[in-house]
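Researcher: For the annotation table, I need structure tokens for Ribulokinase. Please keep the output clean. Sequence:
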Amino acid sequence: MSEVDASDRYVIGVDFGTLSGRALVVRVRDGAELGTAVHEYRRGVIETALPDGGPALPPDWALQDPDDYRDVLRHAVPAALAEAGVDPSRVVGIGTDFTACTVLPTLADGTPLCEIPQLRDRPHAWVKLWKHHAAQPHADRINALAEERGEPWLGRYGGKISAEWQFAKGLQILEEDPEVYRRAERFIEAADWIVWQLCGAETRNVCTAGYKGIRQDGRYPSPDYLAALDPGFADFVTKLDGPLLPLGARAGTLSARAAAWTGLPEGIAVAAGNVDAHVTAASAQALRPGRLVAIMGTSTCHVLNGTHPAEVPGMCGVVDGGISPGAWGFEAGQSGVGDIFGWFVRHAAPAGFDSHERLTEAAAAQPVGAHGLVALDWWNGNRSLLVNHDLSGMIVGLTLATRPPDVYRALLEATAYGTRMIVEAFGQAGVPVDDLVVAGGLTSNRLLMQIYADVTNRPLSIIGSAQGPALGSAIHAAVAAGAYPTIHEASAAMGRIDEAVYRPVPENVRAYDALYAEYRALHDHFGRGANDVMLRLRAIRNAAVDAAADRAAATLEVVG
């Protein structure tokens, strides 16, 4: 941590992740990180049943409690200030970023529906986390109808809207709990809701509106299209629409209530909302076209600025100003990366190999291809290029000689192959990727980073901060506070990057080319309709789970 100077100004960046929120105190003049604190969400990810004895949840649900987000402001921000030793009166702004698409239904004043007592036991009243994938059938209908009608916005999203995005989740609410849909006067990204909590003003940011809300060329999908999906859905855009702000804009000033939560001065600048991945491009000094940022954690989000719009099959979207003003921002992603590695360590690695460190050490000792395996990285579905969250994972080549480090390395490699698929799709659409910058918690795994450099055959740079999203939010806060005129200038002064830390090894590149060819063959066979066994297995599983739940409910009714 750097020394505090009484004449300096500071900003706060707050990064709301999947399991916790982190606050970071940053010096405006050079981006020095003075203090940080993490607050774990009390409820975490709600996947099996609502809290406090609430009803059980079906498969593929993932919810959260919005009060966990307020707790980050109440606990992490004051703790970060205390660690930094910074006088709160020297703080001039606060910026935030969030997972996305993480959305919640609220009243017109921003009250979450799950905080209304009579709706607390209704699952659709809660926050739907980004990895809530139960809306896949609704996404399928959205896509089929848009393709049938030739909706002009569909190509901007690679030809498919994800089950993770706003419209699929909103349609699921309407059709599974019409009362909650009717009570929802607003349907808002958590990225914008937390800004509303900070400054008391409802705003929407261009990033989530474009990537997650299908807002293109100044408008959302038409009421006519929405009514064709379901007559009750025609008003959905009225729940989404709000004052739209560019990234780095001032959404308002810190309210007295939020000042009491955070210990910050009332009236400081509050930056417009943003997404954890997109905001990281600024902290990694990666705003120039051709430099792809991979934010690698539980999942991976890939963001890239381009000079012109292009339709890239299977992409999450391209949005004017979606990463930084003045450029077309492209997004892609993988729904499971660190989560896959964690699954193996927790549930499949035997004693003696049940740690990432031990598995990595053993896996690094073997030559490329020595394990004889290839895996598909769909443990949490496929976000790009296939945009299908009903797909599942696969490992091919297992024998009685296969050992845990072999499987672990194959899983690491599978995620790198998925990233190469994305890189190649960009290039084929005329959006070149020159090099990669990696941010996020997985940068500490040197084997994984070298695998990515070898598989993609591109130099790999590493963000110079362990808190990329929080630093990015602080950079945007500095712009919102007027300390820098543009995000580009703030990024140049406050961001940091270690260039070309990992370079491709030619013999590894050649070996991985052969393995990647096998991955691609499996990818296309099981992901593009030649064999839908994964989808059939998912349907069989869901039917079995539903039948068991019905039997349990019937038993309880008889007992009662």
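Researcher: And a one-line annotation?
Model: The radius of gyration is 23 Å.
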